Amino acid sequence: MKLIIDDACYAYDEIFSQFGKVITMAGRDINAKSVKDCDVLIVRSRTQVNQALLEGSSIKFVGSTVAGLDHVDQDYLKNNDIEFFSAQGCNSMAVAEFVISTIINLAEKHKFNYQQKTLGIIGVGNVGSRLAAKADLLGIKTLLNDPIRQHNENLGNFVDLDIALSADIVTFHTPLTFDGQYPSYKLLNQANFHHINEQTILFNAARGGVIDEKIWEKTQTLENVIDCWENEPNINQNLQKTAYLASPHIAGHSVDAKFMGSFMVYEALCEFFGEKQQENIKNLINPGVLMLKSDNLLDSLNEIYDFKQDTIAIKNIENFEIYRRNYPIRYEWPHYRSKTPLPIV
Ligand SMILES: NC(=O)C1=CN([C@@H]2O[C@H](COP(=O)(O)OP(=O)(O)OC[C@H]3O[C@@H](n4cnc5c(N)ncnc54)[C@H](O)[C@@H]3O)[C@@H](O)[C@H]2O)C=CC1
Ligand SMILES: O=C(O)C(=O)[C@H](O)COP(=O)(O)O
């Protein structure tokens, strides 16, 4: 069997070589010619998985080791009997940690008490619900918006989009969708941007396109935090120059998340081909207990990982893709022993 794998997939050799010959390439370079005689395709977010890539190939299984689905034409896969698995939730804790760590840093910069702020979370799935749980632990009041969940689960505590947008801190965690009853493309647009004002902290760690950047660049906010952009890696430099954090789509890039993305696809692949899982793969990340020296929350979170370094690293946007492909090691909070309680859920 032949597997073609994005070389940014965590531990691709240790994890996937039990299935056959592994060929790797940068995700953006995987093309119809390279997949043609392969049986399995494993990607992250940079490969467009569609008819143009797969028609006439031998691919029987596609695994995506990330949460977003906008790079995959799932209808094409279904109609052509190609098995698809996506590692939903693999990086949700990493994104929640990114948002909380940034809020704590902004509280210090602007001298506000985060317990007196409201946090509007738009999209309350794997990321949004973990973020909400961490915010609750810290005593931050959340305003949750997710009309799909509200409709399906009849949740009484959810709010309308306009209410979530009027929070002090507004953060998007929806997929990028263009159709259905609740498309998220330009969810923050001409008609509702007036809720965002000079006191708002606005995050996009979901996907470029969820917020209309043409309007965003003309809107005065307290701070912008932008991890996901329209037209990556050719990002909007007006927004980049003024954002508190302008990072290269790395909110989900913890070691744990990358491992979990690969591992979840591995489990699905074992099931698909009826192969037994190798026990040792579960132990591929094991940094032991990591000790923190700091004695307050802000310093502890920055000692774990200071996200400001990611903004500095892409001041020259030519570094956008290189930096994210060679991202520093960042472990999630549960690995650390801290003198001050961390909001771990
Ligand atoms: N910056 C990064 O590194 C990362 C970005 N992402 C992005 O974040 C998105 C969310 O990730 P997860 O929470 O894991 O996905 P998820 O599928 O678990 O949750 C998404 C939630 O958004 C809701 N939703 C969909 N359309 C909506 C709308 N119009 N308004 C409000 N809510 C809506 C859904 O009902 C669902 O509950 C991913 O699709 C991906 O695009 C995910 C992980 C890492
Ligand atoms: O899971 C998602 O969705 C993401 O946005 C990933 O963190 C993106 O990872 P890359 O494949 O772009 O490294």
UniProtKB/TrEMBL annotation:
Species of provenance: Candidatus Thioglobus autotrophicus
Annotated binding of NAD(+), by residue: D146, T174, D227, G252
Family annotation (CDD domains): ErythrP_dh (cd12158)
Catalytic activity field: 4-phospho-D-erythronate + NAD(+) = (R)-3-hydroxy-2-oxo-4-phosphooxybutanoate + NADH + H(+)
Gene Ontology terms describing biological process: pyridoxine biosynthetic process
UniProt entry tagged with the keyword Cytoplasm: yes
Single Gene Ontology MF annotation: NAD binding
Keywords: Cytoplasm, NAD, Oxidoreductase, Pyridoxine biosynthesis
InterPro entries documented for this protein: D-iso_2-hydroxyacid_DH_PdxB (IPR050418), D-isomer_2_OHA_DH_cat_dom (IPR006139), D-isomer_DH_NAD-bd (IPR006140), Erythronate-4-P_DHase (IPR020921), NAD(P)-bd_dom_sf (IPR036291)
Pathway where this protein functions: Cofactor biosynthesis; pyridoxine 5'-phosphate biosynthesis; pyridoxine 5'-phosphate from D-erythrose 4-phosphate: step 2/5
Record Pfam families: 2-Hacid_dh (PF00389), 2-Hacid_dh_C (PF02826)
Location (main, coarse): cytoplasm
Protein name as it appears in the record: Erythronate-4-phosphate dehydrogenase
UniProt superkingdom: Bacteria
Entry keyword annotation includes tRNA-binding: no
EC number: 1.1.1.290
PANTHER family, A to Z: D-ISOMER SPECIFIC 2-HYDROXYACID DEHYDROGENASE CATALYTIC DOMAIN-CONTAINING PROTEIN-RELATED, D-ISOMER SPECIFIC 2-HYDROXYACID DEHYDROGENASE FAMILY PROTEIN (AFU_ORTHOLOGUE AFUA_1G13630)
Oligomer and partners: Homodimer.
Protein encoded by which gene: pdxB
Entry annotation: catalytic residues: R207, E232, H249
Transmembrane domains' residue ranges: none
Any single GO CC term annotated in Swiss-Prot or TrEMBL for this entry: cytoplasm
Family the UniProt entry places it in: Belongs to the D-isomer specific 2-hydroxyacid dehydrogenase family. PdxB subfamily.
